[in-house]
């Protein structure tokens, strides 16, 4: 499994955080509180769930965001890319898993995806920090070996801690020769209880006789007590019936009366409703009569006030005329304003014509945007051409000056140049001089050879001394073999002597000839070098002349380029002058088309366009104002004619428009008031008619309700209805009283009441029960006194403890002992199962881990510890480079930490076929020196080729040991950056 990217919606300090490119090796760098631990916890939470509120682990709930959670994109070999998203919810959060083929699921799909891995197991196997490494420092002696064994087998020492705790608990329960453990004490108590039981068994016969007598008395007592309970219960029932005799008799009488009445069917609250409906009918009849009187009076008033028929047809025209009065006044003011503006525009047009010299214009000029734009372009072009001409003039002056300067430099170089014949002779001298330098080098080589020959000669002197000793020894053996007639040894030693003499002769001859030849060559070279002059160096002079010739060629090329540039500038100057003349001609044509004088300045052409445009605009305004003035005059005349017509309809003569309009307003107001009053009387008549109809309808409704009540009661008139209402009320009262009585009685009391014919019979039975109860109580008193005597005799025998009591104590002690023994057996069974499980893991997994850890440990220690060995007795050994075997506690502190890291990485390598998860390391190597840190970082890069590694660190020297494209940097203010070209973002 490999993490490809992650998104944090809200977790700790991060909100809207995106990390889209996570590689196989990723170093997360940041200072303290930058968020490294938060990201590490976020990955654990998304994969395995958020910590619960009761957990000691931090939940990292965001302070400034409602979103809590995020998502991780992982890549697996079987399912491809999978998106795991977890948000705040029940327990560990609501998780959603989306696979590459589009299928989705929840926790049930995530568990098989993670191969059943939980958070604790993942942290033990694939996630480790400085705490686990520093644990090695705390341990001593053989504890270190056990800790490393656990780290390489289970990833943690928790199983070892559990085993130690179980052993301590077992020893607290039982030790074979102990006294303080609980089982040892209980066993001693059990033995003492057994001895007391044997003594009590001898006194048991008398004790059992007394117990039999007491048992017979107890049985008799129980029989009398049961009989007493039975009689007491009967007495209680008789007493209850006697006390409630009057209530029971009343209840009996009510039941008889209810049977006489039978069931009376009557509407609920029928009589009250009947009387209410009658009262409503009387009230409604009075209201109807009042409404009829108001309706007749209103119709009479409406007929007395009618509006005028003469003015009604022109009311709307009068209202319109009154509304147009402000417009009439406004038009009058507008007419005066229009006259003023007409005069103002005429004056301005004359001023523009005088300013432009336009006294006669035969036709209207073209003043469109295109003309103005063309003039602007021509003016800009003219300005641009003038600037180009000035710039060109400056360039021409500069090029001319450069041409003169380059020409002077060429003449200066020509004065120092040799002739062609002298240069060729110089070239020959240079070749001769090169051969001389080769001779000089050869002399140096010969001198070096001579020195090397002297060194070899010196070395050979030692060889010759050895050969001389060998020759002398061989010669002695040869002489001795002759005298002793050992011919085979003599032949062998004689051959050795001859070989040594021949070899010495040939070597001396060769060395002598080589030395003479080297001496002769060195003398010849010395003579040849002395012939050369030391004041003249043809190679240097040749280089100077060659450089001058190249410089002279380059300067002549620059001179040609300067001359060509000067000609080009002159051509450009001529083209600019032609463009300037053409531009001026176009501007003159524009002035003619606008009707401007010939001597009108070019610079004022754009201003002239603006003035001509203004003149045309004012001419149009002038025409528009004249048309508007005529229209307003017509409107004023039409309004005055309409005023005259309305005034005649209202019987007024036309005078001053304002006075006439005032009189029309008063008439209009009076007529409108009449119309309003007519509408009010009409509305009131309609309301009264509606009220009368409503009241009549309501009266009929109440009459219908009275008929329905009569029908439900089954009566035909009011008298029979009221009689049936009285019977219904009596029945209800009897039922209510009966319910009250029944609340004081129960069914058993009523049943007991039916057993007695009269109250005297009940009193007689009550007296007999009292007499029986007193007799039984007297017998019970005698039995209790006899039982007290027996109890005293039994107590005398039980002063030292009875057999039964001691037997009970013995069985109780035995039960307690068995219970604690079962707990001890459970603890020992757990220890056995735990040890068997650990041994299976150690025998199956740890040898494979040791094999891979051996490779890692040798790399981390630069080959100082090339091998690891694991013995079947559970002991781990380290082989040093010199072959010595050492136990882990004998190693230095740093080496022990390297061994721990090698075992942890080897464990991940061994189990990755079953559990392929990323490794997460939180600053685990800060105590290492520079070389060890570099080694472990190199090992991490090698491991990341097969397994993804996420390293969280705040140390810059660790970050610098990794490639820049693997670094992901966090800053304290949650702004992130990367040393690679990758694009990261944090919101």
TrEMBL record:
Signal peptide limits: none
Domain YhaN AAA residues, every copy: 1-206
Residues forming coiled coils: 180-241, 332-456, 542-642, 671-719
The keyword Membrane appears for this protein: yes
Keywords per UniProt: Coiled coil, Membrane, Transmembrane, Transmembrane helix
Keyword match Cell cycle: no
Segments passing through the bilayer: 462-483, 489-507
Protein name, entry field: YhaN AAA domain-containing protein
